[in-house]
Amino acid sequence: TRRITVRDLALAKERGEKWPMLTAYDAMTASVFDEAGIPVMLVGDSMGNCHLGYDTTVPVTMDEMTMLAAAVVRGTSRALIVGDLTFGSYQEGPVQALRSATRLIKEAGVGAVKLEGGERSLAQTEAIVRAGIPVMAHLGLTPQSVNTMGYRVQGRGDEAAHQLVRDAKAAEAAGAFAVVLELVPAELAAEVTRSLHIPTIGIGAGPDTDAQVLVWTDMAGLTGGKVPRFTKQYADLRRVLGDAAKAFAEDVVGSAFPAEEHTFH
Ligand code: KIV
Ligand code: NA
């Protein structure tokens, strides 16, 4: 089997087929999703919150991203793996952006990179695409801008809605192969989806985008505390894993583990 390509995703849009994307941050989890048939995995800088214990995505470095993206690539054989360009690794301009993207391609082996911004990242997107690296854009709520934006629904009101459409068209014109729309009103996401030739991938963006992405730890119920309303939990991994750990602890304290069948003589 060969890996999914950005060309396959363009064809899916032509055929009107929707597809799922999940984040992944390690080889073992990624192999589970690969076997489950998830066609695209994002090694998101959400690893900051979900895997590395930071409060936001802002501190994540390209060293961390490269290491975990390489693990996800090693754990998969079918999915297209997309790696996030981390905060500070592309904002300086197209030369820095291309250097960061090239590193992820060469050292981690990803098939595409993602960056935040439409018009504001136009030169960066163009430079990376021109070098032959597929770029996924990320619009709406862009968590690397948490310090100016906060975490709230984006694109509300005429001016903000028009800007989002302009950003989406700028990303497409610059050569992006897909656009993530995070936390925007469903009606606006539907309008952007209709007005682009490239696929849109929604998260908290309603049902009318071409694809849907969820953070895997939210999707599987591993995340502690409150999860966003747009997430659906398909499992209760936090409880399952906690119960397993408690059962192991009880067995050790009560001398029930190891039993004869776990023991060598
Ligand atoms: O880092 C991430 O997980 C993301 C998705 C939410 C799109 O950027
Ligand atoms: Na991200």
TrEMBL record:
GO cellular component annotations of the record: cytoplasm
Top EC class of this enzyme: transferase
Pathway: Cofactor biosynthesis; (R)-pantothenate biosynthesis; (R)-pantoate from 3-methyl-2-oxobutanoate: step 1/2
Cofactor(s) of this protein: Mg(2+)
A biological process from GO: methylation
GO molecular function: 3-methyl-2-oxobutanoate hydroxymethyltransferase activity; magnesium ion binding; methyltransferase activity
Catalytic residues (UniProt): 182 (proton acceptor)
EC number: 2.1.2.11
Residue positions binding Mg(2+): 45, 84, 116
Cofactor note: Binds 1 Mg(2+) ion per subunit.
Reaction catalyzed: (6R)-5,10-methylene-5,6,7,8-tetrahydrofolate + 3-methyl-2-oxobutanoate + H2O = 2-dehydropantoate + (6S)-5,6,7,8-tetrahydrofolate
Binding site for 3-methyl-2-oxobutanoate: 45-46, 84, 114
Keywords: Cytoplasm, Magnesium, Metal-binding, Methyltransferase, Pantothenate biosynthesis, Transferase
SUPFAM superfamilies registered for this protein in UniProt: Phosphoenolpyruvate/pyruvate domain
Intracellular or extracellular location(s): Cytoplasm
One Pfam family in the UniProt entry: Pantoate_transf
Record-linked NCBIfam families: panB, PRK00311.1
Subunit structure of this chain's protein: Homodecamer; pentamer of dimers.
Function: Catalyzes the reversible reaction in which hydroxymethyl group from 5,10-methylenetetrahydrofolate is transferred onto alpha-ketoisovalerate to form ketopantoate.
Family, per entry: Belongs to the PanB family.
Official protein name in the record: 3-methyl-2-oxobutanoate hydroxymethyltransferase
Organism, scientific name: Actinacidiphila alni
